[in-house]
């Protein structure tokens, strides 16, 4: 299982279904048949514990989901800082099957932070 991460220009319901053909690379803008512009990324659910640890919460999806980019950016920045300062502790959250590791998690958090900085008024969503 994995999470689809996307940003919408305006607040929308959180159960947006993205057709398989609409899964695109991060930092790409495109229009759907409804005319909504998305930013899109995908990450393995094996990183749930690492992200939650980095964000000092029980559920990282609730921490950043349905938030404006400007709000989510602050959370991502704090998580990135923690990942850097406590790298050895973060490594304990590597997935045993190696489908979710520190380098991928760190890169993903940075990608999300960049998107939130670029689109501060858009809303950050996580579909799973």
What does this structure look like?
- The structure is a single chain.
- This protein has 5 helices and 5 strands.
- The protein has helices at residues 48-54, 60-64, 69-85, 87-91, 102-118, and strands at 2-8, 30-31, 37-44, 67-68, 123-127.
- It has a 5-stranded antiparallel sheet with strand order 2-3-1-5-4.
- The longest helix has 17 residues, at 69-85.
- The radius of gyration is 14 Å and the shape is globular.
Q: What are the segments in which pLDDT stays under 50 over at least 5 consecutive residues?
A: 13-27
Total E-strand runs: 5
Spatial ordering of strands, largest sheet: 2-3-1-5-4
Major sheet description: 5 strands, antiparallel
Cα-to-Cα separation, first versus last residue? 8 Å
Write the H/E string, N to C: EEEHHEHHHE
Given helix and strand content, the structural type is: alpha+beta
Rg, rounded, reads 14 Å
Beta-sheet strand percentage? 15-25%
Question: Taking all residues together, what is the mean pLDDT?
Answer: 82
Q: What is the number of helices?
A: 5
Helix content: 25-40%
**Shape summary:** globular
């Amino acid at each position: 299982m994995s999470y689809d991460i996307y940003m919408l220009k305006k607040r929308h319901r959180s159960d947006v279904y993205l057709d398989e053909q609409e899964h695109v690379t991060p930092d790409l803008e495109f229009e759907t048949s409804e005319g909504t512009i998305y930013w899109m990324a995908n990450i393995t659910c094996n990183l749930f514990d690492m992200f939650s640890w980095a964000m000092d919460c029980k559920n990282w999806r609730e921490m950043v989901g349905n938030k404006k980019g400007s709000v989510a950016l602050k959370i991502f920045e704090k998580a990135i800082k923690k990942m850097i300062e406590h790298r050895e502790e973060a490594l304990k959250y590597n997935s045993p099957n190696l489908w979710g590791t520190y380098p991928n998690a760190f890169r993903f958090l940075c990608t999300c932070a960049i998107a939130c900085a670029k689109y501060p008024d858009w809303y950050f969503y996580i579909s799973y």
